[in-house]
Design a protein that fits this description.
single chain, 159 residues, mainly alpha, Four Helix Bundle (Hemerythrin (Met), subunit A), 6 helices, elongated
Length: 159
């Protein structure tokens, strides 16, 4: 069902992704338990703990997204005998395997991270829109890891 020589790297990538999901889920839950509006964004300039929460969320979101696209999917593709070359090939393979629903959604989420890095210092409305979109995109990333985890159980990679 899978190539043994790629088992260790695929399992390691999945384990790391699952750990990242735990951390991102925590930050996501605590961040979005608050009412995020223009007033909240304006408070970011004055309240360091809110800024740190945003930084932690963006960092964890970005790390998980990078890991999925650069390590997790390519290593699982190799495990199953495929060798996609570019990110688009990786995402096309993930779509084929039904690990992701839409490659464009994944790529759009990548753009959101860039907007969140410093946008609240420049354009509060754009920042709020990006943050709300990232709220949904976080669930997409978590779903991808869960689907790959389920697939690894189906093929007998993990129990």
């Amino acid at each position: 069902m899978f190539l043994l020589e790629h088992k260790e790297r695929a399992c390691l990538a999945l384990e790391l992704a699952q750990r990242e999901v735990v951390h991102l889920t925590y930050t996501h839950r605590t961040l979005f338990s608050q009412a995020i509006d223009l007033q909240w964004v304006e408070l970011l300039k004055e309240q360091e703990e809110l800024s740190e929460k945003i930084d932690a969320f963006v960092s964890r979101f970005g790390r998980l997204q990078d890991h999925i696209g650069e390590k997790l999917i390519p290593r699982f593709a190799a495990l199953l005998g495929e060798s996609p070359k570019s990110l688009l090939d990786v995402l096309a393979y993930a779509e084929k395997m039904e690990w992701i629903e839409n490659a464009e959604t994944f790529i759009s989420a990548r753009k959101l991270r860039n907007l969140l890095v410093h946008e609240y210092l420049i354009d509060a409305k754009l920042f709020i829109d990006a943050l709300q979109a990232t709220n949904k995109a976080t669930l997409v990333l978590i779903d991808i890891v869960n689907r790959i985890s389920q697939h690894s159980k189906t093929i007998g990679l993990i129990s």
